[in-house]
Amino acid sequence: MTEWTTLPGLTPYPDAVGAMEARVADIHAGRAPEAVWLVEHPPIYTAGTSAREADLTDPGRFPVFATGRGGQFTYHGPGQRVVYAMLDLNRRGRDVRSFVAGLEGWVIDALAEFGLSGEIRAGRVGVWIARPDKPPLPDGSMREDKIAAIGVKLRRWVSFHGLAINVEPDLSHYDGIVPCGIVGHGVTSLVDLGLPVTMGDLDAALRVTFDRRFGG
């Protein structure tokens, strides 16, 4: 059975990473069950293993943490649900691509609980929302906004880090980075899209849809 924990308040990022690393070691050793932690962080930028220095456009704005997860620069802050998924791929199948697709599908399932259609795009990890209400891009293609970022790390085939879904963060905080290195498209949130969804509402949707992708 996967153990679920919701951490109150704003959790300092280094504390979360240290706790995750300890939990991953315990899961691998059989001392603890798999876990999903639901967290909020103070405003920070994190740099994944593919982060480009030029994409940090305002380095003095918030603390910046290098992290071993995949991906580039992203933002965490109040109003954003960070989901740390510590799952044992030794028993779930050692397939990283399938695991990331499962995380994307989980987010899409949770968003569908609110009547929202999340989509994935080749070459752009994460979950996107089509914005026909916005002017198209210069090439005429429809603008899309990112609502969820995904970045994972594996240690001995146990996952950690995970995903971040925007409920009601200050979207201007993304201005200090090129989010995930993608230019042209923007970021959005559930509330920005006009949905009166609370953090508790999203947590309930994540809980009810988890078993469809990961069972247990």
Q: In words, what does this structure look like?
A:
Helix 1 (13-29) links the parallel strand 1 (3-6) and strand 2 (35-39). Helix 3 (96-112) crosses helix 4 (199-214). It is globular and about 55 Å long. 25% of the residues lie in helices and 28% in strands. It has helices at 13-29, 89-92, 96-112, 199-214; strands spanning 3-6, 35-39, 44-47, 64-66, 73-76, 80-86, 119-121, 124-130, 144-155, 158-166, 186-187.
Beginning-to-end CA distance, first to last residue: 5 Å
Indicate the low-confidence ranges by residue numbers: none
General shape: globular
One letter per element, helices H and strands E, the order comes to EHEEEEEHHEEEEEH
Average pLDDT metric: 93
Biggest sheet, in brief?
8 strands, mixed
Give helix % range: 25-40%
- How many helices? 4
- Please state the structural category: alpha/beta
Q: How many β strands by DSSP? A: 11
The quaternary structure here is single chain
* Approximate strand percentage: 25-35%
Radius of gyration: 17 Å
